[in-house]
Specification:
Elements: E1 5-7, E2 16-20, H1 21-38, H2 49-69, H3 82-112, H4 121-127, H5 139-169, H6 172-188, H7 197-201, H8 204-216, E3 223-226, E4 233-238, E5 241-245, E6 250-253, H9 255-258, H10 278-286, H11 306-323, E7 324-328, H12 330-338, E8 346-348, E9 351-353, E10 359-364
Antiparallel strand pairs: 1-2, 2-10, 3-6, 4-5, 7-10, 8-9
Length: 372
């Protein structure tokens, strides 16, 4: 998985393997979310044919969806455009995958009872009832929810992990500090690696590194809100600086822009562009709530998967850093240089995308790491 290429080279480059970290992290997060939803492994990483086909359909569905959302003339609503045909083809494949599993689980619950079913999201969706009417979710409701969870539950986390590993690879001192924290956790816990919420919460430096990654490169460019149902009012920006929000107004909030406004981050215009995870430790010491940090949105409609995403991202990064030394591959290092020090990412229809692969050179750490 991840387009690995062997590498020779000299000096520290010997015995290194080059990987596409954007593809590799996406394969892992897809397997994780699939097992969380269905209690079923996919084996994308091992190259199982049907699993690889499903992963390809997810990728093509996302790309086609982004192309449609970028169609400002909305031609796809009036004509059978190639993008619309591609989206619909892969949507049908995904729907069949989800419907097969939902139908089989529904039949098992009818036969054996809900208590005997796996405790996962699919069972929760099939057994939930409307508190007012007692009605169950329709087949379409279940399928749509599963699609949204699969897309949102692996694509954005994979993008964050890929960016974080590239930033750590390009900042050796931060990487050494975070890897040292992972090593210490392992020594103190009988050699095991983090796998739970409590474990992940103990990795403060890794948590700061992931947050700093999302400050600079949030997976979602824009959060859209509407001041409806009696809401509205005045935002105060400082003495004599008020912004009135009329009821019914639409608002676009950009986590990307907020993450790069120096006045919110305790530095200057140059510092705010740097990958410096220690700024979160400094904010804790100041008692700063960092209201400008909102990669998952905020308020009552904050992303429901935010805690799962943080857990998954930190556990995945910890496992990588425990086993591997990472450095930027030449093509990604050159791409960053051409991009004025920024990672070569883009945003398509508001979601992070990779116009070119993010590639790392990785070498297994000392023999004490051992295979896992």
């Amino acid at each position: 998985a991840g387009g690995a290429r062997g590498g020779g080279g000299s000096g520290d480059g010997r015995n290194a393997t080059e990987v596409d970290i954007s593809d590799a992290s996406q394969a892992v997060t897809l397997e994780v979310i699939h097992e969380a939803l269905f209690s079923e492994r996919l084996d994308v990483i091992d190259g199982e044919r049907n699993a690889v086909a499903l992963a390809r359909s997810f990728r093509e569905f996302n790309v086609a969806n982004q192309d449609l959302l970028n169609d400002f003339l909305t031609l796809y609503q009036r004509f059978e455009t190639p993008e619309r045909a591609r989206r619909d083809t892969h949507r049908r494949r995904l729907r069949a995958h989800f419907d097969d599993r939902a139908d089989a689980r529904r039949a098992a619950i009818a036969r054996d009872g809900a208590a005997a079913a796996p405790r996962d999201l699919l069972t929760a969706l099939l057994t939930t009832r409307d508190p007012a009417t007692g009605a169950a979710l329709t087949r379409d409701d279940v399928n749509l929810t599963l699609t949204e969870m699969m897309v949102a539950g692996h694509d954005t986390t994979a993008a964050t992990v890929a960016c974080m590993m590239c930033l750590l690879a390009s900042h050796p001192e931060v990487r050494a500090s975070v890897a040292g924290e992972v090593d210490e956790f392992r020594r103190n816990n009988g050699g095991r690696l983090p796998s739970s919420v409590a474990d992940a919460n103990a990795l403060v430096k890794l948590d700061d590194a992931m947050k700093e990654t999302m400050r600079l490169y949030p997976a979602v460019l824009i959060v859209v809100r509407k001041a409806e149902e009696g809401t509205g009012g005045v935002f105060t920006k400082g003495p004599g600086r008020e912004v009135r929000i009329p009821e019914g107004s639409g608002m676009w909030v950009s986590p990307y822009v907020l993450g790069r406004l120096a006045r919110h981050w305790g530095g200057d215009e140059e510092d705010v562009k740097r990958f410096r995870p220690s700024r979160f430790e400094e904010a804790r010491e100041r008692g700063d709530s960092l209201d400008a940090y909102m990669p998952f949105g905020g308020g009552p409609r904050v992303c429901l998967g935010s805690r799962f995403a943080m857990l998954e991202g930190k556990v995945l990064a910890a496992h990588i850093l425990a086993d591997w030394d990472v450095e930027l591959a030449a093509e990604t290092r050159d791409a960053i240089a051409r991009n004025d020090g920024e990672l070569p990412i883009a945003y398509a229809a508001g979601l992070m995308s990779f116009p070119e692969s993010l590639r790392l050179r990785v070498r297994r750490r000392g023999a004490a790491s051992g295979p896992r």
